[in-house]
Structures are given as structure tokens and as C-alpha cells.
Specification:
- The chain is built from 5 helices and 7 strands; from the N terminus they run E-H-E-E-H-E-E-E-E-H-H-H.
- It has 167 residues and is an alpha+beta fold.
- Strand 2 and strand 3 form a beta hairpin.
Length: 167
């Protein structure tokens, strides 16, 4: 059985200018071909650049991209992988302060929280509604969304069209 093909988007929300060529190389290596980004100034963070790249490849390419970019501490990025025949979608978010977040997504882009993660949140919450809410927010990636949201809005004039908003 062959690996299903899928597509997605890589959003580099902010990168130091000097890191940009290295990100292109790392993403190209993950995609299996040379790639060049259309870099723009990131108005939220002086001296930073931003880029948005559509990609196509076999299921798992999103994970390869997220892994290739992981480790650069001044980098903010998101990778989305659309669901394909027989496989779920996925979403990765990275910020310098929070590190990386991964979530499975359904056919319309909603984050899917596994039952074991919900059980853990209930255990940690132990009757404390505030703690339960905090744990569920983490399970949904809300702290990453909160940190990335200003950087997303900075790209509202870009050519990428959001088909759905997760979270």
C-alpha cells in the first residue's frame, strides 16, 4: 500500500534575517528538493523576516518539516498538514518561549485531543475548575496560539488564504 499524498502550509512567522537561508535549506531537505521562500519583513518584530510556503508530499511531510526547523531558538513557525485518504491532518506550532506543540486535526482543521490527554487534565485538575481549564487550554495549544496570533495578523496582507482557523 502506498503512502497517501497530502499538502499543507509552512508559516515562518518570524526568523532572524541571517537564519533565512538555513531555513530554506532545511525545508528543502525535508521536502526532497531545493526551495526558495519569498521573504517579507515581519512588522511585529524589527529585523525579522516572515514567509509562507505551500507544499505537497507524502503523508508525514509536515512532521519532517517541523522537525527540520526545530532547534532554532529565535524561530516562530507553524506547519499544517491536511488530512488525506485514511490519515488525519496535523498541526505543529513553535515559539522560542514555549518550544514545539503538536496536535492531530480532523477533516476541517479542528484540534483533536486524545482521551488519555483529557483524562490527564481531569486528574491534574482534581476538582479544581481553574486547573482543569488550564490543562485543557494547553492540550488545545492555546498558549502557542496566543503567542503566535499577533504574528499571524501581521501577514494578513499576504497571498496565503486561510481555509479554516483552528482553535
Amino acid at each position: 500500500m502506498s503512502t497517501p499524498m497530502t499538502k499543507g502550509v509552512l508559516f515562518v512567522h518570524s526568523s532572524p534575517r541571517a537564519l533565512c537561508p538555513h531555513l530554506e535549506w532545511a525545508a528543502g531537505r525535508a521536502l526532497g528538493r531545493a526551495i526558495s521562500f519569498d521573504w517579507e519583513d515581519q512588522p511585529i518584530l524589527r529585523g525579522a523576516q516572515r514567509a509562507e510556503v505551500f507544499w505537497e508530499g507524502p503523508h508525514g511531510t509536515g512532521a519532517a518539516l517541523a522537525s527540520a526547523l526545530r532547534g532554532w531558538e529565535h524561530l516562530r513557525y507553524e506547519v499544517s498538514e491536511d488530512p488525506a485518504q485514511g490519515v488525519d491532518g496535523a498541526r505543529w506550532m513553535h515559539t522560542p518561549d514555549l518550544g514545539i506543540f503538536y496536535a492531530q486535526t480532523d477533516s476541517i482543521g479542528n484540534v483533536v485531543v486524545p482521551e488519555d490527554r483529557i483524562r490527564y487534565a481531569m486528574e491534574v485538575g482534581a476538582g479544581n475548575a481553574v486547573e482543569l481549564q488550564r490543562e485543557l487550554r494547553v492540550a488545545l495549544g492555546q498558549p502557542w496560539d496566543d503567542e503566535l496570533e499577533p504574528f499571524r495578523h501581521a501577514g494578513d496582507g499576504s497571498s496565503v488564504i486561510w481555509l479554516h482557523n483552528v482553535g
